[in-house]
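As promised in the previous annual report, we have extended the structural survey to additional targets. Below is the entry for Os06g0725000 protein.
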Amino acid sequence: RRSRVSQGDDRFVFFSRCGGAAEALGADMAVPRSVPVRVAHELQQAGHRYLDVRTEGEFAGGHPVGAVNIPYMYKTGSGLTKNTHFLEKVSTTFGKEDEIIVGCQSGKRSLMAASELCSAGFTAVTDIAGGFSAWKENELPTNK
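The corresponding structure token record, generated without further manual editing, is:
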């Protein structure tokens, strides 16, 4: 269930079970909470599962210990294209109520992916601010 809070100018903030807020400007989109990498690591140690949404190549170059890789985007030529099977693949690996922390390289793709998961009914999604770059800078455990 979401609560609606008026911002006084015909915009509303929706608080979702994912723990964040989103402005509704013609669209009802849930936004997850974002936490620093050290908090994300503590959540992982407490049993949250790490979903790494970077490309397979980025993941192969190093990733947090225990992370599951499901790319949110694929490299195509000189750019990135959205993985049209992202939600389907996440749904076969995670349950809607699983506690999931979502990370990418810098925090942009993970926020998009986490927002999509919240909107799709996943209830315990947390975005990792700073991504794998910050994870490495903080010398948290990695494979490679």
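The helical segments are 37-45, 56-60, 86-93, 108-119, 131-137. The first helix runs from residue 37 to 45. These points will be discussed at the next consortium meeting with the crystallography subgroup.
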